[in-house]
Specification:
Elements lengths: L6 H17 L5 H8 L3 H13 L3 E3 L7 E3 L4 E11 L2 E15 L9 E7 L13 E5 L9 E6 L2 E10 L2 E5 L13 E11 L2
Parallel strand pairs: 3-5
Antiparallel strand pairs: 1-2, 3-4, 5-6, 6-10, 7-8, 7-10, 8-9
Helix pairs in contact: 1-3, 2-3
């Protein structure tokens, strides 16, 4: 990249890049502000400057929508479509799609799904978006996951209260799903909007 950065901008970019590689998802503005020990508006200013200079992309209305732009990308398979309460519709010939390296790590398997529906709109995941999923069979409370239930596959927030598991949409017009059984097939780590 050609545009030079101030020492503080380099520090913020380094934090975002290392956080993304370590955690498998990008930091929130609040996490950036906590790292800097500064206010949210200050963190927002740094992110906007890095975006303006071409070092980050930012997806509006998405909590974890700050993505560092790295040289090069990696390819993962686009396996099909996922919608609220409907099965994953596999593609006959999965095509590879390019994603920023910051969305993946060497210690995992990744795949992409195209979203159909509006069950996650308040999380900034819209109909037609492509979500990047890290294949894993476990989830923590609050993770956004691909889950298989008796009703099919869905992308929702995994919730566990006491011994009760439920799947929470991010659309105020939809109710949580309380499945009899649930299988986790992956964790949301990134979003691509074309």
């Amino acid at each position: 990249m050609e545009v030079s950065l101030t020492p503080k901008q380099k520090r913020v970019l380094s934090f975002i890049t290392h956080f993304t590689r370590r955690e498998g998802y990008t930091p929130t503005l609040r996490e950036i502000a906590e790292y800097l020990r500064k206010s949210l508006p200050t963190a927002q200013h740094y992110v906007e400057e890095l975006e303006r200079k071409g070092y980050l992309t930012k997806t509006e209305n998405l909590t974890r929508g700050i993505t560092p732009i790295e040289e090069g990308s990696t390819e993962i398979p686009l396996l099909g479509y996922i919608a609220a309460g409907e099965p994953i519709e596999p593609l006959e010939n999965p095509e590879p799609i390019a994603v920023p390296r910051s969305m993946t790590s060497k210690d995992g398997q990744y795949y992409a799904l195209q979203v159909q529906g509006d069950s996650m709109i308040e999380e900034g995941i819209l109909d037609g978006d492509t979500v990047v999923i890290k294949h894993q069979l476990i989830a923590k409370d609050g993770d956004t996951v691909v889950a298989i239930t008796e009703r099919g596959a869905t992308l929702k927030i995994f919730r566990k209260r006491n011994a009760r598991v439920y799947l929470e949409p991010r659309n105020k017009n939809l109710n949580p799903i309380y499945p009899e059984e649930v299988e986790i097939r992956g964790k949301f780590v990134g979003l691509i909007r074309r």
